[in-house]
Amino acid sequence: MSVYGRGLRGLRVPEGRLEIGNTATSARLILSVLAGQPFAAELGGNALLSARPMDWVVQPLMDMGASIEYLGVKGCLPLRVQGVSPLSPIDMEATVFSAQEKSALLFAGLYAEGITRYRQSCQSRDHTERLMQYFGIDIQADGDVTSLRGGSFFSAKDVIVPGDLSSAAFLLAAYAIRGTGHKGSLSIKRVGVNPTRMGFFHLLREMGLHLMLQKEEDLLSGEPIADIYCPQAARLSPVLAEGNERIQSLIDEVPLLAAVSAFAEGDSVIRNCRELRDKDTNRIQTTAGVLRAFGIETSCSEDDMVIHGGKRPSPAIVDSSGDHRIAMTAAVLASSMDEPSIIRNCGCIDVSYPGFVEDLSQLAHIDILRSE
């Protein structure tokens, strides 16, 4: 892919509303870029995205000088942004644990005159900081505080995007829950192994899976990559996953961790995952619902899940509710059984992992059923 940039001040007024589909990260980052433009624009998304909160990004942008008007439900898309150039820099304390808030503020900070500072509550994903440093942007991280000086010049560079660890996690999970009688090893090549994303990897190790990193190297952009290798399946032990920083390092993999925990002998507990209530679905509830459909005893609250492992799942018919990670988690669970299961509403998988079915087919037989 080649992108021909127009510089910070070179964007033009869009011809119509910018429709983001169901990509929340894109919506929040584009919203921040629009806030620093000397024109107005509208931003919208599909039904799932339009139900997700945007206010924790909108409010700091308004504090920096942008005018933002909700065109439907308050706090959600669609909305209209009247940008301002330049924005005013701010010092901000985190209001959520998600790295999206941090990244959104840093993008807006590019259009501010002066230093914009963000203090995070715990270490979250740092891909934005690494990429900005690579491009030569004046950005510094000191403990929990990230500072960016706006208006500085930076130039185009080539970027190699590592393999997505969140996508690799589904294959790791499908391999982990195979019976120990299955032969064969698993190797996934050139995966991004950023330390702020490795929570699921480390927890699988704690559960007994013999995971190793091979051919480790750092890309020019500062992102570490490696081959993930597992020589054989193993019996799994229950796990306790808690603490805001640890949960942030595997927030997208929490449904998957719950599914894997069903194959451990004993109770596994996942805490501090309240953020999952505001994803494509309330992923605490939808994850618990999928597990129960497969016969796995599960209890949950607004902030945690308990998975009672040790009982093999049973075939099921489940609906993803349009949530790509729930659909893939259900497919991974289904891959552990010889009898067929049906997962409905799976077109959403293409949002994040278009090759998922083909890749999972290396571990299980999958048929795509087309509705008439």
UniProtKB/TrEMBL annotation:
First-tier enzyme category under EC: transferase
Where does the Enolpyruvate transferase domain lie?
12-360
**UniProt key word Acetylation:** no
The alphabetical list of record keywords is: Amino-acid biosynthesis, Aromatic amino acid biosynthesis, Transferase
Q: Which domain of life is it from?
A: Bacteria
Enzyme Commission number(s) from the entry: 2.5.1.19
Q: Which reaction does it catalyse?
A: 3-phosphoshikimate + phosphoenolpyruvate = 5-O-(1-carboxyvinyl)-3-phosphoshikimate + phosphate
The metabolic or biological pathway listed in the UniProt record of this protein is: Metabolic intermediate biosynthesis; chorismate biosynthesis; chorismate from D-erythrose 4-phosphate and phosphoenolpyruvate: step 6/7
In the record, the note on similarity to other proteins reads: Belongs to the EPSP synthase family.
List the protein's name: 3-phosphoshikimate 1-carboxyvinyltransferase
